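Incident log, support desk, overnight shift.

02:14 A customer reports that sequence design results differ from what the structure should imply. Their input is reproduced verbatim below. On-call engineer (initials T.W.) acknowledged and began investigating.
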C-alpha cells in the first residue's frame, strides 16, 4: 500500500481485531482503497483489476483477491452500499494508525467502524459490532 496516493483503510474483522475486539477470527483482510490506487497497485501484485459483483447490500467498482500473504487480501475499490434501493459510495472520514511489525496499518476510528458494521447489517457484522461495543 506504500504506492497508494489516496487514503486507504483496513476494514472488516481485521480492523475490529486491531481495535481490541476479542474472539475475532479474521479469515482475510479487507482493504478499502480508491479505484485509481487499485489500478496502480494490483498489477504489481499480478492481479488484473476487475469489476466487482453486486449483492443485495454492497458492490465494488473493483474487487480483487490476493493470496500472496499469510491471510488472503481482499481489495475493494469504489465500495458502494445499497440505501433504500440507491447505491451510495462508502466514504470513510476517520483513520487510526496502528503499527505492526514496522508496518503502518490504517483503520477507521472505532465509532466509524461500528457504523460501517451496522450498515453492512449481516449476521457477522452484528457480531463484530457486539464485540466492539463490549470494549466500552
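02:41 Re-run completed on a clean worker. Output:
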Amino acid at each position: 500500500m506504500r504506492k497508494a496516493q489516496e487514503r486507504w483503510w483496513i476494514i472488516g474483522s481485521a480492523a475490529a481485531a486491531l481495535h481490541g475486539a476479542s474472539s475475532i477470527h479474521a479469515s482475510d483482510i479487507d482493504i478499502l482503497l480508491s479505484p485509481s490506487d487499485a489500478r496502480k497497485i494490483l498489477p504489481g501484485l499480478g492481479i488484473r483489476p476487475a469489476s466487482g459483483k453486486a449483492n443485495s447490500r454492497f458492490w465494488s467498482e473493483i474487487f480483487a483477491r490476493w493470496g500472496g500473504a499469510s491471510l488472503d487480501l481482499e481489495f475493494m475499490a469504489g465500495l458502494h452500499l445499497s440505501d433504500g434501493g440507491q447505491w451510495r459510495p462508502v466514504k470513510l472520514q476517520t483513520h487510526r494508525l496502528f503499527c505492526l511489525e514496522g508496518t503502518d496499518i490504517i483503520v477507521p476510528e472505532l465509532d466509524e467502524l461500528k457504523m460501517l458494521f451496522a450498515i453492512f447489517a449481516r449476521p457477522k457484522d452484528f457480531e463484530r459490532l457486539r464485540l466492539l461495543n463490549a470494549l466500552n
